[in-house]
Amino acid sequence: MAVLLQIRDAHKSYGEQTLLDGAEATIIDDVKVGFVGRNGAGKSTLLRILLGDEELDSGEVIRHPQLKLGYLRQHDPFEPGESALDFLMRDSEQPDWKCGEVAGEFELKGAYLEGPVKELSGGWQTRVKLAALLLHEPNLLLLDEPTNFLDLRTQILLEHFLRHYKQACLIVSHDRAFLNATCAHTLDLTRGKLTMYPGPINAYLDMVEETRIRDERTNAAVVSKQKQLQRFIDKNRANANTASQARSKAKQLERLQVTEIESEEPNAFIRTPIVEPRKGAAIRCENLAIGYPDHTVATGINIEIEYGERAAIVGDNGQGKTTFLRTLVDSLKPHAGSVRWGYHCDVGVYAQHVYTSLPPDQTVQQYLEYHALPGTPLQAILKVAGSMLFRGGAVNKTVSVLSGGERARLCMAGLLLGEHNVLVLDEPGNHLDVDTIEALATALVDYQGTVIFTSHDRHFMKRVATCIIEVRDGHVNNYGRDYDAYLFAVNKEIDDGERERNASMAKALPGKPMKAAAKSARRDERKIRKEQSKTEKAIARLDDEKTSLSKQLLTETNPDEALRLHNEVKELEEKLAAAEERWCELQEELESAF
């Protein structure tokens, strides 16, 4: 196995914040690594260093001479009016069939492949970017939070591709389900140190917890033994008869050492509003139609959500999940029908990208004081701030200096300071780290109110959801209470689609390597004409050889030589007939297809 990247004694700081402190790691080819760590630990900074966009303060990054990095672009690389296929061919300089083959891995076909790429939703544009990235054939993919804002279907398609991808990957993600499905190794960045673990993230987290528990138990036993020895020493060292025993025990005591256990980094402890459980319908939609002034997204919606339910709104990007949520909270007016909330419903809303509109000059404490209920004691506000990791001087930070994850936690803290008995949460886990997402899931499971939410994090969805509501193809339906059943159905649909696509491609080109052409499975006209031209030359050559041998046969008097020439003429006639037949097949293909 070749070493693609080696990080040696890496140091990187921003002011008083140390991100890398003698960090070391090695990435080899053909291995997929999940890169984890707290928000602000320095994961994205390290990726920028590997890409050459930033420099280490000290240390080095050693790159293999054949290293070819691939990085998922966040900006818009598309030109006005071009199709996804046009973009893929322009960006990669690969032929249409190759672009179609990779695009097919992400279900990019038909109008999605041939229509204007700028008219696609963000999730479909991400699929196009992923296909473009892979067409450059990197031997190390760097993916920074690839599942953020990707719908479930696109996540599963990306998983399917990565599982069969033969090159190395380094994937930053807070989505444990995605990392477990794609990565065989885990790289952790904590307190400036890199730790490579030869296993998926769940096994790594279990190992960390087991090590901590084992070390704590060992230390407890050591401390107990130390106390026992110290008591013996204190009691016997002054006695002449037992002084030698006391000295021996003192040597034993010196050898006993506890294992140093680093103090755990603070975890978010999220407190949801304390509400009284209730019965009946929290919200009822009757003959509801949703959408925007210029188009309708879904019609005929008849949905009822009970008090205490945790309803997950699912569906592909662009199908209308956020539109549905916005209609429920009256941010959008319905085209038809009605939305009726239950009696005394107090609705709190956490919307996508809400953290980008926070007042930049307010401090954390000022923001929370403004959003807290009148009369809320300062100590209660600071307690909620501390639960979201704003402790000590952090409450005096202004919004302008907070990271995306810190702003998301601040918005969530402001929401939780209320007394809402209904929470409507649009992607609450985006930009939160693994531990904070886990804390939020635990809090919502214990919450006695009603939760209506969207999320692309399958681990979070599975833990929290008690019912699944799917938005798809202009309809909204209650799928039932089992998220695993919904996930199984989506996986089966994708698997069936892949099998159908592979079978159709194999049928179109029997005996040939499968190629997904962009517009159809037909062969390229240029290739047909090229083969036809070669066949014509072969026919001419064979005909010349046959003519020459036939002339020799007419004048040959030696019986043995005449027999040999006769056999050769017969062989040439068979080859000539086959070549002429092939030329006719090619001509028919040209006439029928073009």
TrEMBL record:
Keywords: ATP-binding, Coiled coil, Nucleotide-binding, Repeat. PROSITE patterns: ABC_TRANSPORTER_1, ABC_TRANSPORTER_2. It comes from the Bacteria. Residues 562-589 form a coiled coil. InterPro entries: AAA+_ATPase (IPR003593), ABC_tran_Xtn (IPR032781), ABC_transporter-like_ATP-bd (IPR003439), ABC_transporter-like_CS (IPR017871), ABCF (IPR050611), P-loop_NTPase (IPR027417). Residues 5-216, 283-498 form the ABC transporter domain. GO terms for molecular function: ATP binding; ATP hydrolysis activity. PANTHER family: ATP-BINDING CASSETTE SUB-FAMILY F MEMBER 1 (PTHR19211:SF14), ATP-BINDING TRANSPORT PROTEIN-RELATED (PTHR19211). This is Putative ABC transporter ATP-binding protein YheS. The lineage of its organism: Bacteria, Pseudomonadati, Planctomycetota, Planctomycetia, Planctomycetales.
